[in-house]
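Page 47, continued from p. 46.
Same chain as before, 176 aa.
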Amino acid sequence: MRSKLPSEVLQRLHNGALLVENVDWPGHIVRKHGWSVANKAYLAAQEKLGREEMEALLSALRMSQPVDGELLRQLLLTAVDVFLHTDRISAEGYVVGGDISVKVSRCPIYDKFVTPHWFGLTVCGCFSRRKGWYDALGVNVHEDLVMNRKWGDPICELVILLSGREASTMQRTFSA
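Result:
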């Protein structure tokens, strides 16, 4: 699906994803309003960004909802490929038994978590960001969090459950 997009369109979509790399602004909110307010503001911003990303991708592909089945799978894989590859984010998406496994080996939030004297975010925005994707697509999706760097795992891995399989570990349900 990515190959259907002209390089200048891919670059424009990718440039929008660079906004997620700015994780310093919530630190200013923390100092004035506290962790809870900062985390909520960050998650809301990530969800909005995700919605805008998927709407832009749908528009670039001249598609609209509803999408399901293989088309949904291909759209989500394309979103991972386009939006989760920046200077500070590295993620790969794979189809596994009808579901999508997303493996994240690098992200700006985790880089900040392990930095001494970090006084910013304490939450990961990737779930809210993908929730924005699902909202833009108008789909109900379950995710299974398999590994998490904050738990000491070498990568973060989640499975977007599209095959009807139930989540086995940490489940997040997103409804449009």
